[in-house]
Design a protein that fits this description.
The chain is an alpha+beta fold. It has 6 helices and 3 strands; from the N terminus they run ααααααβββ.
Length: 153
């Protein structure tokens, strides 16, 4: 068997995801789109991928206009973050770095907090591994994949 024949033999049937919101769509056909997922679950996954893409495109536009100093684009990686967040339980932690906007949008994180600068005094690490920081709003716990701490002078 040639390499091309192997590729063709393993190729799955195409997945059609358009028309899922069409009220005239045949529910049994829609349920066969991707085995194990209902049409509603597929719509939710699609929206979870679409939201960070829309934010990414807006941020890149602002960057090109000089209205934003920097942005680490994650365009093309939205499905990865969506898949990870979908598989997590509410009690699970995920420590994203840059280019993982879909993790923040999928976990309903306040994007102002996720993209902003928080000033305060580090007070140690709690029993759960979170960095304790005294801020103007009071003591806050931070669990992050990246924290920049500077020594106060």
């Amino acid at each position: 068997m040639t390499h091309a024949q192997v590729r063709r033999s393993k190729r799955a049937a195409p997945i059609r995801m358009t028309g899922m919101d069409d009220p005239r769509a045949d529910p049994p056909e829609a349920e066969r789109l991707i085995e194990g997922f209902t049409p509603e679950q597929l719509r939710n996954l699609y929206r979870s991928i679409l939201l960070p893409r829309m934010i990414e495109e807006k941020m890149l536009l602002l960057l090109r206009q000089g209205r934003l100093a920097k942005w680490f684009s994650g365009i093309g990686q939205e499905a990865i973050a969506t898949g990870v967040v979908t598989a997590l339980e509410p009690r699970d932690f995920v420590l994203p770095m840059h280019r993982n906007l879909g993790v923040f949008t999928g976990r309903d994180v306040d994007l102002r907090l996720a993209t902003g600068v928080i000033r305060g005094t580090a007070r140690g690490i709690d029993a759960g591994g979170a960095l304790l920081v005294d801020t103007a709003a009071g003591r806050r716990r931070f669990v992050s994949g990246e924290v920049s701490v500077r020594i106060a002078s």
